[in-house]
Write a structure and sequence with these properties.
about 180 residues; Immunoglobulin-like; 5-stranded mixed sheet; elongated; 3 helices; alpha+beta; about 30% strand; 2 domains
């Protein structure tokens, strides 16, 4: 997960996570040593503070774990959102259509070797979690928006010879195996 985040997001999540861990350690080890009745009559207050810390941590991960809009602005691709029942468009001249399936935690392509040229990658989410598709390689950085299970996204790109990384940028997914290296000749 840390590899997919910016430095500011990593620091923000580390600070919030550190506060959460410090609170947990203090309330489990340090305070009971000096106050054996902890939390005693103040149990509702302790539970409320614990829930507040937990919600704060989850909010920080949700907010800071997202990619910024500026990061996606420099992509050299177009995306279009479709549902699983729609058909693909053939408006792109000579673009080869490639079906991509994403599920926990795997990306499936018909081949990991392609010829240079224009492609439409029709990525379908056949899993139970939300995913996206990112393609990075020589002179190219393109991605779809994050899309839900059962939905489909189309990513139109032109691939030059070289090695490309196809992966899901949802935090933790690439590290869990949603990463495929494609060679373009």
């Amino acid at each position: 997960m840390p590899l997919g985040l910016s430095t500011g997001s990593e620091i923000g999540i580390a600070v919030v996570g550190g506060c959460f861990v410090l609170f947990a350690l203090c309330s489990a080890v340090l305070i009971p040593r000096y106050r054996p009745n902890f939390p005693g009559r103040r149990l509702p207050l302790f539970v409320a503070i614990t829930i507040l810390f937990f919600v704060g941590m989850m909010t920080a991960v949700g907010v800071l774990g997202r990619e910024s809009k500026e990061a996606g602005a420099g992509t050299q691709a177009t995306t279009s959102s479709t549902t699983s029942t729609s058909t693909t468009s053939t408006t792109a001249a000579a673009a080869q259509v490639i079906a991509v399936q994403e599920k926990e935690f795997k990306i499936t392509l018909p081949s990991t070797t392609l010829k240079a040229g224009s492609y439409e990658f029709d990525a379908k989410n056949v899993g139970k979690l939300s995913h996206d598709l990112v393609i990075k390689g020589p002179g190219l950085s393109a991605k779809t928006p994050v899309y839900n299970p059962g939905q489909q996204q189309t990513l139109k790109v032109t691939l030059k010879p070289g090695k490309y990384d196809f992966y899901c940028s949802v935090p933790g997914h690439k590290a869990a195996g949603m990463n495929v290296e494609v060679t373009v000749t």
